[in-house]
């Protein structure tokens, strides 16, 4: 009986937290179906009449789809590169023995303690010298390594029995084959977790793209939403349409999470897929 009450209380608390977390999304979706006046009325939860024209107007009279496409391209390519570079570095720090390995890893992890804004100036100067400012390739190249990804994948790799790696080497497998044919499959959940978190971060990024891109044709969703919908755009005072645009922006993330939630949750729980 005591265990039942404890579980019931735990589930009630989790349900309450879930409601609090999902309410802003719920409010945004409902706001996109209201008039602008209704959207700003905190006492009005449900719209009197569903206004689908808000979404249709955003589709037809705003460059939002272009911004979403820009973000998808940059986020997908940069995430793929981050996975490759993160896996290679994590593999080296986990399975390759060389002098100063632990010191080098400590230095790499120390950089994770730096606030991202501290890297903006040197990164900006580097891109300027390479002629990559105001370009999609500059956005991708400047975000092609994730320190968090290196740490996450290395943690997963260290759970793999060393005997498995040694057996692969005895069979003649090289480092590249061991990484992608043996290590990656058994730590798939960690790769999915890293990829999803990296994609969401890149997709929603605002500050760095705003610093290096001035061409509106290259705007990411966060830039485009603020520039066109809020600052001085056509829908600057129509909050119902702003919410409609925000809802459309969130849809790709929801779809991605729906397909990867199994591996994502498994990765967060520390289950690398390696069994005794």
Structural account:
This protein is an all-alpha fold and about 280 residues long. About 70% of the residues lie in helices and about 0% in strands. It has 14 helices and no strands. The protein has helices at about 1-30, 35-40, 55-60, 65-95, 100-110, 120-130, 135-140, 145-155, 160-170, 175-185, 190-205, 205-210, 220-230, 240-270. Helix 3 (about 55-60) packs across helix 14, helix 4 (about 65-95) packs antiparallel against helix 11 and helix 13 (about 220-230) runs antiparallel to helix 14. The radius of gyration is 23 Å and the shape is globular. It starts with a helix and ends in an 8-residue tail after the last helix. The relative contact order is 0.15.
- How confident is the prediction overall: mean pLDDT? 86
The CA-CA distance between the termini, in Å, is: 34 Å
- Number of extended strands: 0
Major beta sheet, specifics? Answer: none
In N-to-C order, the SSE pattern is HHHHHHHHHHHHHH
Q: Provide the β-strand percentage band.
A: under 5%
Shape: globular
């Amino acid at each position: 009986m005591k265990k039942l009450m404890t579980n019931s209380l735990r589930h009630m608390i989790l349900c309450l937290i879930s409601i609090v977390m999902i309410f802003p999304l719920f409010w945004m979706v409902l706001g996109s179906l209201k008039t602008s006046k209704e959207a700003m009325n905190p006492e009005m939860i449900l719209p009197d009449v569903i206004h689908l024209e808000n979404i249709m107007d955003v589709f037809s009279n705003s460059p939002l789809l272009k911004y979403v496409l820009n973000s998808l391209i940059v986020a997908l390519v940069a995430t793929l590169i981050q996975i490759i570079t993160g896996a290679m570095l994590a593999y080296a720090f986990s399975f390759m023995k060389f002098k100063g390995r632990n010191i080098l890893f400590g230095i790499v992890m120390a950089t994770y303690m730096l606030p991202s804004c501290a890297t903006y100036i040197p990164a900006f100067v580097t891109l300027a010298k390479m002629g990559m400012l105001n370009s999609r390739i500059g956005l991708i190249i400047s975000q092609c390594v994730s320190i968090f990804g290196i740490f996450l994948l290395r943690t997963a790799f260290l759970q793999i029995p060393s005997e498995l790696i040694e057996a692969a080497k005895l069979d003649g497998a090289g480092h590249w084959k061991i990484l992608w044919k043996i290590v990656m499959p058994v730590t798939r959940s960690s790769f999915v977790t890293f990829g999803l978190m990296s994609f969401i971060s890149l997709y929603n990024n605002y500050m760095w793209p705003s610093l290096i891109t001035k061409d509106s044709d290259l705007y990411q969703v966060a830039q485009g939403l603020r520039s066109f919908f809020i600052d001085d755009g056509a829908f600057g005072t129509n909050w119902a349409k702003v919410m409609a645009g925000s809802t459309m922006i969130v849809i790709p993330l929801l779809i991605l999470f729906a397909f990867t939630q199994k591996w994502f949750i498994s990765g967060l729980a520390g289950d690398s897929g390696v069994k005794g």
